[in-house]
Amino acid sequence: MLFRSMDRGECIVFSNDRGRTWTEFAGNPVVKHQGRDPRLLWHGPTRQWVMAVYDELPGKRCIAFHTSADLKQWQFQSRIEGFYECPDFFELPVDGNPTNKLWVLTAASSEYMVGKFDGRQFTPQTPKLPGHRGDAFYAAQTYSDIPARDGRRIQIGWATIATPGMPFNQMMAFPCELTLRSTGEGVRLCFQPVRELERLHTDHHSWSALTLGPGTNVLSGIRGDLFDLRMQFTVGNQGEVRFAIRGVPVVYDAAKQELICKDRRNPLRPVDGKVRLQILVDRTSLEIFGNDGILYMPMAAGFSPQDQSLALTVADAPVHFDSL
C-alpha cells in the first residue's frame, strides 16, 4: 500500500498477515515531492508499476507519472499540467471495441482528457473536457482489478450534500459504470448507474406509446422518497418536458436542447429526435443521466422531507413517450 505522509512524500506500508497489521518500509519516502494522492496501476505492456500522483510546482498544478519495477525504487517520467488532486487513470475500450482502447486521465473535479499512454508519458488526444455537470460531486475514484469476466470500470464519487439530523456528514454518490463512446464531437466519457441498483426496485409503474398533452400529470398520485425514473421521448423544436420531483423542478427545454435543474443548465441534444433520461432520486440527492450518460448531473436536491409528490407535465406542445 502506498500512502501520503504529509511531511515526507509518498510512503509504503506492507502487511504479511493479510492486512491485520502493517509495517512502514524502512526506505520511506519512496517519492519525495510537493503533492499527494498516489494512484497506482500495473502497466502490462511495459511490465512495470505506474504511479499517477498530484504534484505541485511553483505556480503549477500537475499530475506526475513515476514508474517502478518493485514498488520500492521509483523513477520520475513525466508530468502534465492542469489537474488538481485525487488523480485517477485508467484504460477503456472505445464503443466496447477491445482492439481500440484509450486512456482517461481525470482528477478531483472530474474534468478529464482522453489519450495514449506508453508507460511513461500520457499524450492527450482531447482538450480537458467537463466530467459531471452537477453541483455536488468531487474526488471520485474507480475500483481497481474488477474480475476480467466482468471488466467494468466502476466509479464512486463524494457527493458533497449535507445530511441534516444524521450522525455523519455528506455521502457517496451512486456507483457508475464508465465507458468511452464516439460522438459527433469526438470520443467522450459516459456515466451510467450500475445495473445492481435494480435489485432495490419494489413497486413498478410503466407506460409505453404515451402522448402527453399540456395540462396532464401522468404521475399524479404516485408518492415516495426513492425513485428510479427512466424514459425515452420524442421532441420537436419547441416545448418543455417538466418534472417536479418532491418539489424540485427538472426541465428539458426542446427549443434550446438543454436540461435544467436548479441553477444548472446543460446541453443535451436529441439523438435521432429522441431524448433518453434516467433520474435517480435518493433522500437528499438527484442524479440525472441524459442519453445513456453523455450528460451526468449529480445534484444536492434540497427536498422538503414532507414532500413526496411526483409530477410529469409538458408545456407548449404534446410530447410522445416511447417508454416511461
Main features:
324 residues, 6-stranded antiparallel sheet, elongated, mainly beta
- Order of secondary-structure elements: EEEEEEEEEEEEEEEEEEEEEEEEEEE
Count of DSSP-assigned helices = 0
What is the radius of gyration?
22 Å
Count of individual beta strands: 27
| Strand order within the widest beta sheet | 17-27-18-23-24-25
Runs with pLDDT <50, length 5+? none
Structural class label = mainly beta
Task: State the end-to-end distance.
Answer: 46 Å
Overview of the structural elements:
The chain has 324 residues and is mostly beta strands. 0% of the residues lie in helices and 52% in strands. It has strands at 2-5, 9-14, 23-24, 35-43, 48-57, 60-68, 75-81, 88-94, 97-106, 112-117, 122-124, 138-142, 153-159, 171-172, 176-183, 186-193, 208-212, 227-234, 240-245, 248-253, 258-261, 264-267, 274-281, 285-290, 295-300, 310-315, 319-323. Strand 20 (248-253) and strand 21 (258-261) form a beta hairpin. It is elongated and about 70 Å long.
